[in-house]
Specification:
With 376 residues, the protein is an alpha+beta fold. The strands form 4 sheets. It has a 7-stranded antiparallel sheet with strand order 3-4-5-6-12-11-10, sandwiched between helices. The chain has a 5-stranded mixed sheet with strand order 1-14-16-15-13. The two termini are 39 Å apart. About 8% of the residues have low confidence.
Length: 376
């Protein structure tokens, strides 16, 4: 029975994907013999019970990913050579450091330890993330506050050192034993924001800083990333969402691209090249969702990601799409995607070659994120 159900689902998926494979296949094979089959399938699919089933399947897909292969390929991108990890010292002035950098470290300390940044991008705190890495290994993002002192640090790499035993891979229960119960709300001016319960993240208040600890739910709910932010910098963002502007849009796109590549390399995958043409398609979809208040892989015209790429004259062998909505930064969006199996699988598929990122904001400054992966 189970095998029969799987076979039926396969046939449904194959039928739904027919517009994608029919044209390239017809160039090599005469498909006219399928016309009687098409008529039978059309009649079958338009019965009320089957239509409801297909709608349910589509709804489920909307929350995970689209993935299609129109051609078998043995493509496997080049995985960067492994870069040695730095020797990590215990923090001297705080409880946690990242790549030997602490909250309050000077610009000179950062340059001495990390060299020059690979990129600058605007963040939700009204300052810039400076991103450091070596082929997306030893990945660190740093933001400076007043007096050119480090006011925020993030890593999703094995670069965490602490005086209390917290490190990359520490189980969630051990983190809570050390840091206590996470905070449930953050005050900003006269407003108090209640934090939603998230199995994949804890927030702790330690002195004059917030510690955001992200867990990998697919690796035993262990520490996979840490973000440290001073309370002063956190207060500079007066609302849950930063005021949207073009610089922040570009910043979120750059950060999500970097975070995705850092995750891929950490899991033994190749680095994806940025594709501006694909990014335009992704950006237009984010903008359409933001302007028309919906969240779906299919737009209001019923067009799939593949339809939109085809309309934009993008050629691909394989393609996939991830969506996220409402997270206050690309860091939160990325960590959430990595804890959703379908989206995580899409991020870590080996044989993609290029990535396009598109971000747009609605009238409440809530961001919509679209990732389009392709193999050219």
């Amino acid at each position: 029975m189970k095998r029969l159900l799987l076979f039926i689902l396969f046939i449904v998926a194959l039928y739904l994907a027919k517009p994608l494979w029919e044209e390239p296949v017809s160039k090599h094979i005469d498909l006219s013999f399928l016309q009687p089959v098409d008529e039978t399938v059309e009649n079958f699919f338009h019965t009320e019970s089957v239509t409801s089933t297909i709608d349910t399947i589509r709804d489920k897909w909307d929350h995970f990913l689209y993935f299609i292969s129109v051609k078998t390929t043995n493509w496997d991108g080049v995985v960067p050579k492994e870069v040695p990890k730095p020797a990590l010292d215990k923090p001297a002035h705080t409880t946690i450091s990242i790549h030997n950098i602490e909250i309050g470290s000077s610009e000179e300390d950062v340059k001495r330890e990390l060299g020059e940044p690979k990129s600058h991008s605007r963040n939700e705190y009204g300052t810039d993330w400076l991103t450091y890495h070596e082929d997306y290994q030893n990945f660190v993002m740093i933001a400076f506050g007043k007096n050119k002192k480090v006011a925020a640090i993030y890593t999703n790499d094995d670069l965490i050192s602490s005086t209390n035993g917290i490190a990359y891979g520490t189980p969630k229960e051990e983190v809570r034993k050390v840091l206590g119960e996470p905070v449930t709300e953050i005050r900003k001016g006269l407003n108090i924001y209640v934090l939603q319960k998230d199995e994949g993240m804890d927030v702790f208040k330690q002195g004059d800083s917030y510690t955001y600890v992200f867990y990998d739910l697919h690796q035993g709910t262990t520490v996979t990333a840490v973000q440290l932010v001073t309370a002063e910098l956190e207060r500079k963002k007066p609302d849950l969402y930063a005021v949207a502007d073009p610089a922040l849009r570009l910043g979120f796109e750059q950060q999500l691209y970097d975070l995705t590549n850092a995750a891929r390399v950490r899991h033994g995958r190749s680095i994806l090249s940025w594709d501006e043409h694909v990014s335009e398609t992704a950006r237009n979809h984010s903008l359409d969702m933001a302007d028309h208040d919906y969240f779906s892989h299919d737009n209001l015209e019923g067009k799939s990601p593949f339809d939109r790429m085809k309309d934009d004259h993008i050629q691909f062998i394989r393609a996939g799409e991830n969506l996220a909505y409402g997270q206050s930064s690309s860091i939160f969006a990325h960590e959430g995607l990595m804890n959703s199996k379908g989206h995580r699988d899409n991020i870590l598929i080996k044989d993609y070659s290029h990535l396009g990122i598109g971000v747009a904001f609605n009238e409440h400054s809530q961001p919509y994120y679209t990732e389009n992966f392709i193999l050219k």
